[in-house]
Specification:
Layout (H helix, E strand, L loop, with lengths): L11 H16 L8 E7 L5 E9 L3 E9 L8 H16 L3 E7 L3 H8 L3 E6 L8 E7 L4
Parallel strand pairs: 3-4
Antiparallel strand pairs: 1-2, 2-3, 4-6, 5-6
Length: about 140
């Protein structure tokens, strides 16, 4: 019998076990490993006011999270960060970029305005909402 333990606040090293293990496994199949990105905008006090993070999911650039402090929303930070994520994906050779959001959240329309299309929808999320996986082709420059 083995024991499984919940780690309340996993460290970078804890996450690294998964990351490194996946990359080693993918290498057996001739696939490049995953990699991640994190882009941020700072205010004059060097505090993060907007950020995006994600990863290369074996050839697909994925947006894992995008956040803009409320007072900085609707000022172009979100679009600029998504453009950076797309450029990162392009540099890695990714053909598409994807993101998950809830259909009735403002982010859904935001991503559609940037050219993302619904790849598929899934029911069963909190409060009866519909989750949407969106996709956009990364064009070569």
């Amino acid at each position: 019998m083995f024991r499984i333990v919940k780690i309340e606040k996993p460290s970078e090293n804890d996450h690294g076990v998964i990351y490194n293990g996946m990359n080693e496994y993918a290498a057996q199949y001739g696939m490049e490993g995953t990699g991640g990105y994190f882009f941020a905008a700072y205010d004059k006090n060097k505090k993060i006011i907007a950020a995006i993070s994600g990863f290369d999911n074996f050839g697909t650039a994925e947006i894992g999270g995008l956040w803009i402090a409320e007072k900085y929303r609707n000022q172009g930070y979100g679009k600029a960060l998504v453009v950076k994520a797309e450029a990162w994906g392009r540099e890695k050779g990714c053909k598409v970029i994807t993101v998950f959001t809830i259909k009735n959240w403002p982010a859904f329309g935001f991503y559609q305005n940037l050219g993302f299309k619904i790849e598929y929808e899934r029911k069963g999320h909190a409060q009866g909402t519909i989750g949407c996986y969106l996709i956009k082709e990364i064009k070569k420059t």
